[in-house]
C-alpha cells in the first residue's frame, strides 16, 4: 500500500501556514468496529458512533480489508440496488469489478476510483474478478457514501471511472508527505472527480516523523480517517491510529503528524482526508436507500420491487465463487 506513489521532491508543494490561519481542533476520535459486508468480506465501519450532523454530507464509509486472501477466498457483493446518493469505491490494493444497470462498469485497481451516482435508482455489482478469486491476493479499499441534496435525489444515474494516474498529486511543504486529491480542491490543486455535493476527498501518505499541514475550506466539515499507521492530528496533536476517525472543529487548516517509528509492515501513516459542504436536510435511510422522508423511502422500496431501477444486463458479470 498504496498503489499510486511518486517522488514528492518533484511535485507541487502545499503552502505553509500563514498569519491568520486557524488550525482545526479535534472534536472527537472514534474507533470503527469490524464487521462483514456483501458475501462476507471484512470491513471497518469507519463512521460508527459519529453523529450524522458531524458527517454531513457523508452517510457511510467502510474500509474494506486490508486482507491477504488465500486462493478461493476473495468475496464481493451480488447485484443490489441504490437510490438517493453516490457511492465512491477507492481501491488501494487489489482489484474489484463493477457493472451497473445504466451501462457503467470496469475494473477498479491500482489506486483507481469508481464514482457512481445512484440518483433516481440503479442496480450494480462489485466483485473480485475470477482471476483474483482463483489466485487470492491482497484486497484493500474504501467505500464512501456521499449524500445528494433533495434537488438531486432523482438525478439520472451516472458513472465516473477515475484512474489512479488521474489523481492530482501534491506534496507537503517539506516533501515528507504525498497527497492524492481524488475530488474537490486543496488550496489551488483540484482533483478529477465530478460531484453533485461540494466535497474534498484525498489520500495522504505521511512518512515517519513528517508533518502534513494543508489548507481546508472553512465552510466544509473535516474528517481524518487512519487507514494504517500511528500519529497525531489537529491543533492539539491528539494521538490517532489505524481504524480511528477524527472529527475536526472549525478552522481553515488541517495538521497530521506521523510518529517517528511505525510498524515494519506499515511503514508510513496513511490517512483519508474528507470534507464537504453540509446539506443540512433530513436523512431517512434504510439499507441501500438514502432519502429525505419516510414516504420517499417506501417509494424507493416499491420502485425497486417493481423493476423501475432497471434490469441486470444480459451476460452480466456475476460473483465468482471458487468450487
From TrEMBL:
Residues 1-34 are annotated as: Disordered. Residues 202-310 form the Pirin C-terminal domain. Signal peptide: none annotated. SUPFAM superfamilies: RmlC-like cupins (SSF51182). It comes from the Bacteria. The keyword Hydrolase does not apply. The keyword NAD does not apply. GO terms for molecular function: metal ion binding. Coiled coil: none annotated. Residues 47-146 form the Pirin N-terminal domain. Keywords: Iron, Metal-binding. Binds 1 Fe cation per subunit. CDD domains: cupin_pirin_C (cd02247), cupin_pirin_N (cd02909). Fe cation binds at residues 80, 82, 124, 126. PANTHER family: PIRIN, PIRIN-RELATED. Belongs to the pirin family. This is Pirin family protein. It comes from Antrihabitans stalactiti. The lineage of its organism: Bacteria, Bacillati, Actinomycetota, Actinomycetes, Mycobacteriales.
